Amino acid sequence: MTFLTKKDVEELGELKAEMRIYDERMQRLFERWAELRTVSHEARVFWREEVDACFKPIGTIVGALRGHVWEFFWLKKAFAGAAMVDDNPARVAANNAIVYQTSEDDEFSKKIIAAVQQVESFVDKHIKR
Question: Is 12 part of any domain?
Fold first, then answer.
């Protein structure tokens, strides 16, 4: 297609704006994750390898969230080009539940809470000594 309709332009503009918003949010998340990794490396001096296992679930969640945000935009055909996108309703709903955090009681949120609690528990245990 050599031209876009007004609707196409509006949708593309909305998509780019949404991508920019998520990019800014992910940047903040990665900055915090980098800070947390620095703390974990410093803590390793005192508590050795135990620290690695403690922080690993948070790293896994950060990576998973990055993947879900990418999939979110892929499902909206932001990266597809001429490729077919498997955007069946169940897949879109599952991805939206994570990206939009439809509930604090969903499985992904529970994983986040458990990972943070694991770090808190580890630190509390070692600081109280």
Answer: yes
